[in-house]
Design a protein that fits this description.
The chain is mainly beta and 883 residues long. Helices cover 1% and strands 38% of the residues. The protein is built from one helix and 72 strands. It has a five-stranded antiparallel β-sheet with strand order 1-10-9-8-7, with no helix packed on it. The chain has a five-stranded mixed β-sheet with strand order 29-33-32-31-30, with no helix packed on it. Strands 53, 54, 55, 56 and 57 form a five-stranded antiparallel β-sheet that branches. A hairpin with a 6-residue loop joins β38 and β39. The two termini are 34 Å apart. The N terminus is likely disordered. This is CBM2 domain-containing protein. It holds the Pfam family CBM_2. Belongs to the glycosyl hydrolase 74 family.
């Protein structure tokens, strides 16, 4: 699910860094531009900590000229190209830098049907002042490996309302130097005749649109005119080398939604007889049969929409036909996703993108919309009959750990399903985007025989989470993450998708987390939630959680800090002032002497010491958060874009980063519990700070920061307490805005975890191998085996082996089922199950397990077993090897 994401922590900062695009339209700038920097970048290898997906994919585009070539666009996380050999997506916009962070939002993407090496992306994240930079059109002649860009004289909105409509950017199939771009905000229709190098407004186009989601929204977000939303060419009206004569354009105007030109864009007319009262989300042309298909909704999406229709327009006769799969009375959703099978053009598919409950719906017709079948239907309400089988074993968290009542199911078929494409070279392959992933099938034509087909995530390599906080404890899992929209994860192996996000409770977004430095099994997190407490605690390093209680007035997560020994916590939530508690948050007391909204952290050595910062003042508590006193330190950043951390192992030593271009901005250091701070010279700007394992032969922990040093923005490392810095990323690896969080790994020298706003958790290691990765520690091994199956259930054995050197005195084994299985009966232990997560504890007689010995349990369960079974098992928070 992708809620509106705004860079709240960076908006004030970015306003001074980003300038509007130049008025000239012939900007021919390569991306990235060569940087002049005094430090040579230290060679690093960069990867994602695998989550696979995690955000809204509003657009998927297949090449019409080359098999297996496809692109996906995301609203804030850049663009991707499908790589068939690895069945994964390759990120294409990691070179977008800090100053152009808005260009990670992709409003449209186009693949050249005449030259498959050419691809274009229209980029820009917000049309209001949240993104101070203008939009741009980026162009590549090597499939996105490198780019040049033209800055536009207006903004584009990859993360604005209506972003699932489109595609706004289109290439003339007969003259690929001609491109059209539909603009938002009343800027109309634009055209390039030199392959995207320069752009000019099509002054003859009559309608710039008039629809806004909420015209009264003072922020400018929901009140923006969604503008010109799609362009479609009728390829039957030209031959190679000459511009296509007939072009259709969709406009966000409920009374005048579709226009046509029959003279290659010289003049335009409103299509006569068209339906009114809805917005045309998409227009897809079947030129072979002369049919233009259109999906309509009463709103622009991607979240809203209560009514919609599906129409077919005969291009030769001008006849409009309502081909909606359901009656208007039965429609409680809008239509958006739309595709034609290019191998069998009479086959059409569409989605009910805004059917949130009980699930999205996908419709299919093999007779040009005369009749339809649907992906699921009611048998006897509330029971459903599905044409498909969901297999999320590669991304088991897509179940959300839920156990819904019918007619809801988990995992869902999807929501916000505005991207839907049948592979033009393979009628069996379909992909569609959701608010959390890309799903697909390679058995699509089974649908027509009423034979079940399997839908799986087709999302590997596409990482689209917004990262709000990171932690790397000295023991247990190497990485804990706080994420927007999907809560966060515990990574025991960075190369594998975790089995489940943090649950019990589930936060829609986790805003802050922390662990006790001397007791890393104690972890706390806070976040946003629709109902219930905004704080949760774990005593097993984040494997299992229990909710705390909220102080009165809490409306959001804010920031939280755990004492060094885990004995107390300080929380600065939204809607209430700073509070403190002993134990695990059953009750909270207001802290004195510190303002509401302060960012809080703990000393990593002294369990009685906590810190806070707000509006240029630093606050210190030496009594466990009961009372705070303002430090006399002066000259700190006065804005609220400040992040700081206390150094592990040394009481009272603090590093603080933050600021704004028009005030104090940089990196500060204190060694006296924040009473004084020294600003580091040479660090012009810094936004994050974190610590990692000391370099070989060094005594001080490695520092990491996202900063501007010697005029160059980048990710920097210091192994000498900030006396010198080395840039560890390069111009090809910038990831837009990286100001939310950073941390090194206390167990692996040189490893750094970087928070991005839409590209997930990036981690880097020295390319020379100087960092030593111990891998996931494991003193246990699990063998899982299905021994019997029947119509609606199965039986399985689980054998747990102690591969360590010391005996166990009691054990607890945890795993997550990937496909909604439910244990009916278990023997040789006691179990609990919450959603998909199962915890099995020893019986009295098998409590002790000697080194090399094993304990075994068996169970029966309802539901068919997933082919691969559970992907991960853990004992006491430690992931086990599997056989």
């Amino acid at each position: 699910m992708r809620r509106t994401r705004v860079l709240t922590a960076v908006l004030g900062l970015a306003a001074g860094l980003l300038t509007g695009g130049p008025p000239a339209l012939a900007t021919d700038a390569p991306l990235p531009a060569p940087a002049s920097v005094s430090q040579a970048a230290d060679a690093y290898t960069w990867r994602n900590a695998r989550i696979d997906g995690g955000g809204f994919v509003p657009g998927i585009v297949f090449s019409r000229s080359e098999p297996d070539l496809a692109y996906a666009r995301t609203d804030i996380g850049g663009a991707y190209r499908w790589q068939e050999s690895t069945r994964s997506w390759i990120p294409l916009l990691d070179s977008v830098g800090w100053d152009d962070w808005g260009h990670t939002g992709v409003v449209s993407i186009a693949s050249d049907s005449a030259d498959p090496d050419r691809v274009y992306a229209a980029v820009g994240t917000y049309t209001n002042d949240w993104d101070p930079g203008n939009g741009a059109v980026m162009r590549s002649d090597d499939r996105g490996a490198s780019w040049r860009k033209t800055t536009l004289p207006f903004k584009l909105g990859g993360n604005m309302p209506g972003r699932g409509m489109g595609e706004r950017l289109a290439i003339d199939p007969h003259d690929n130097d001609v491109l059209y771009l539909g603009a938002p905000s009343g800027h109309g229709l634009w055209r390039s005749t030199d392959a995207g190098v320069t752009w000019s407004k099509v002054t003859s186009f009559p309608n710039p649109g008039n629809y806004a989601q909420d015209p009264d929204d003072e922020s400018g977000y929901a009140s923006d005119n969604q503008g010109v939303v799609w362009v479609t060419f009728d390829e039957s009206t030209a031959t190679a080398g000459s511009p296509t004569r007939t072009v259709y354009v969709g406009v966000a105007d409920k009374e005048n939604a579709v226009y046509r030109s029959t003279d290659a864009g010289a003049t335009w007319e409103r299509l006569a007889g068209q339906p009114t009262g809805h917005l045309a989300h998409k227009g897809v042309l079947d030129a072979e049969n002369g049919q233009l298909y259109l999906t309509y909704s009463d709103t622009g999406g991607p979240y809203d929409g209560g009514k919609g229709r599906l129409y077919r327009y005969a291009t030769a006769t001008g006849v409009w036909t309502d081909i909606s799969p359901v009656t208007e009375a039965d429609a409680y959703f809008g239509f958006s996703g739309l595709t034609v099978d290019r191998q069998n053009p009479g086959t059409v598919m569409a989605t009910a993108y805004s059917s949130w409950w009980p699930d999205t719906q996908i419709f299919r017709s093999t007779d040009s919309g005369a009749t339809w079948t649907q992906a699921w239907r009611y048998a006897s309400y509330p029971e459903r009959e599905n044409r498909y089988v969901m297999d999320v074993s590669s991304s088991p968290w897509l179940t959300w750990g839920a156990n819904p009542s019918p007619p809801e199911q988990t995992p869902k078929l999807g929501w916000m399903t505005e991207a839907l494409e049948i592979d033009p070279f393979d009628s069996d392959r379909m992909m569609y985007g959701t608010g959390a992933t890309v799903y697909g099938t390679e058995e699509l034509t089974n649908w027509d025989d009423d034979t079940p087909f399997t839908i799986k995530p087709m999302v590997r390599g596409l990482e689209e989470t917004a990262v709000l906080d990171l932690a790397s404890p000295p023991s247990g899992a190497p990485l804990l993450s706080a994420l927007g929209d999907i809560g966060g994860f515990r990574h025991t192996d960075l190369t594998k998708v975790p089995s489940m996000m943090f649950t019990q409770p589930n936060f829609t977004s986790t805003t802050s987390l922390d662990f006790a430095e001397s007791d890393p099994d104690t972890v706390v997190r806070v976040g946003q939630v629709d109902s219930g407490p905004h704080v949760a605690f774990s005593t097993d390093n984040g494997v299992n959680w229990s909710a705390g209680a909220d102080p009165s007035g809490v409306s959001g997560g804010g920031t939280v800090a755990a004492a060094a020994d885990g004995g107390r916590f300080v929380w600065s939530p939204e809607g209430a002032g700073v509070h403190h508690t002993t134990g695990f948050g059953a009750s909270w007391s207001a802290s004195q002497g510190i303002p509401a909204g302060a960012v809080v952290e703990s000393d990593r050595e002294d369990p009685a010491t906590f810190y806070g910062v707000k509006s240029g003042r630093f606050y210190v508590s030496r009594d466990g958060g009961v009372t705070f006193e303002a430090s006399p330190a002066a000259g700190l950043p006065t804005g609220d874009s400040v992040r700081f951390k206390a150094l592990p192992g040394t009481a009272g030593e603090i590093w603080l980063a933050g600021g704004e271009p028009d005030g104090p901005y940089g990196l500060w250091h204190s060694t006296d519990f924040g009473q004084t701070f020294t600003k580091l010279p040479g660090v012009e700007e810094a936004d994050t700070v974190g610590f990692g394992k000391a370099a070989p032969g060094a005594s001080y922990q490695t520092l990491f920061t996202s900063a501007r040093i010697d005029g160059v923005r980048g990710i920097y490392r210091s192994t000498d307490a900030g006396a010198s810095w080395v840039r560890v990323n390069d111009d090809a690896h910038q990831w837009g805005w990286t100001g939310a969080a950073i941390t090194g790994d206390p167990r692996v020298f040189g490893r750094v975890y970087v928070a991005t706003n839409g590209r997930g958790v990036i981690y880097g290691d020295p390319a020379d191998g100087s960092g030593t990765d111990p891998g996931p520690s494991s003193s246990c091994e699990v063998t899982y085996r299905v021994t019997n199956t029947w119509g609606d259930g199965f039986q399985a054995d689980v054998r747990l082996t102690n591969t360590g050197t010391t005996p166990w005195d009691g054990w607890s084994l945890t795993w997550a089922f990937p496909a909604g299985e439910r244990i009916a009966q278990l023997w040789n232990g006691a179990h609990t199950q919450s959603g998909s997560t199962v915890t099995v504890r020893n019986a009295d007689w098998n409590r002790t397990v000697a080194p090399g010995a094993s304990a075994a349990v068996g169970f029966t369960a309802s539901g068919p077993p997933a082919d691969a079974g559970p992907r991960a098992f853990a004992v006491g928070g430690e992931e086990c090897a599997t056989r």
